[in-house]
Amino acid sequence: MKTLRVLTGITTSGTPHLGNYVGAVRPTVRASRLPEVESFYFLADYHALIKVGDPARVQRSTLEIAATWLACGLDPEQVTFYRQSDIPEIPELAWLLTCVTGKGVLNRAHAYKAAVDKNTAAGEEPDAGVTAGLFMYPVLMAADILMFNAHRVPVGRDQIQHIEMARDMASSFNHLYGAHFTLPEAAIEEHVATLPGLDGRKMSKSYDNTIPLFVPREQLKKLIMGILTDSRAPGEPKDTEGSALFQLYQAFASTEETTALAQAYADGIAWGDAKQVLFERLDAEIAPLRSVYDELIQNPAQLEKILKMGADKARAIATPFTARLRHAVGLRPLDNLTDTRKTAKVAKAAAPSFKQYREADGLFYFKLMDAKGQLLLQSSGFASPKEAAQTIALLQTGGTNALAENPTLLPITADPETVSQALRYFSEAAE
Ligand code: TRP
Predict the structure, then answer these.
(1) Among residues 73, 75, 57, 53, which one has the least CA distance to residue 12?
(2) Where are the domains of the chain?
(3) If the chain, 431 residues long, is cut into consecutive pieces of 10 residues, what is the mean pLDDT of each piece?
(4) Ligand 1 and 9: CB distance under 6 A
(5) Was domain 349-430 assigned CATH 3.40.1710.10?
(6) Domain 4-194+299-328: CATH class, spelled out
(7) CATH topology classification for 214-295
(8) Is residue 11 in contact with ligand 1, taking CB distance under 6 Å?
(9) Of 238, 257, 259, 372, which one has the greatest count of Cβ atoms within 10 A?
(10) What spacing in Å lies between the alpha carbon of 111 and ligand 1's midpoint?
């Protein structure tokens, strides 16, 4: 059973490079194959507009990134792979979230603050050159995540704050309008390498030191030959520590291969030869992917079709969910008028709810109450609030099935059907 929803977005503002491959594409494609995971991957092209003002580049990057993910093994039949701008419900949700988000919260977002600090340091107006798009970036990102009630969002460290903001927006919305959103968590890949670029600094578009993932073999070789090394002559022992070449090799090679190269360094391998070794190792992994990539790039109609299929799958969730959210906030047909004096109370009373708390024993607990506040389910103690929250998320998506698989829970109610019914409220909410 798929119990865990994982979602991540890739901004379509550039050409995928080796750092993206090792840090994001490769681990994510692997993770997408886990049977218990339901994955959502999308091309964040609305986000690209914040940074890129060149329409041809946005389109080209969308093509290249879509082709890259598919060439690297993402299976569009198994996952939901779509383009953000094919889902008009996302910007609509962004607006609903905008209306429950404090402006002060957005003032504290890293990317916006960095822009303001830079302006201030340069003696400019704080908001000089800052678009409202940059300012609203975290809200659009929250809409991406909350639309699909993702539990887990794999991102880089620089994005953790955005996930926390998405949680806060979800909480505010849930508090006001009922339990519609799952609170997402950031998932940080601790052990994937950050690759150095051609100049030894972190490989990044902003340093202009990248090695594109899919260039022709000859060009890849030329780029690798250009990696910065020190001036040690052939025969002189070389340091693996701080060697960009070595780190790049390590990200692709097996432990044995890596040990062998370390030995060659100690034995004084010439830089030119070490580069040749790196090139062949890289190309061995990339060449089969490259031929699929080249084929896809030649065939944009095919890519378009795949993305449209993904959009259909995504909208099968987003369209009804948005209808529910519109109703929740009061965007409703007028021929079905609600008595405004009663709505607030009715909305609160209609929903079952989870309550999390801590006991004197230091452990974290939760309970499920029905609409009238009757206790339906009482958990046992968890070591951390995170574990408690994850179990709640499991129950919300998996219903009583998840309960059966989870021996740590102690239902105190005598009537499992009542619990099941209450839990169905959450899974329907997520659909
Ligand atoms: N902001 C992310 C980045 O730059 C891209 C992104 C957009 C994203 N929406 C998202 C990532 C939703 C995860 C979930 O890396």
Answers:
(1) 57
(2) 4-194+299-328, 214-295, 349-430
(3) 88 94 91 92 97 95 97 96 98 98 96 96 96 97 98 91 97 96 91 87 92 97 96 95 94 95 97 97 97 97 98 97 96 79 53 86 88 84 85 80 67 71 76 51
(4) yes
(5) no
(6) alpha beta
(7) Tyrosyl-Transfer RNA Synthetase (1.10.240)
(8) yes
(9) 238
(10) 13
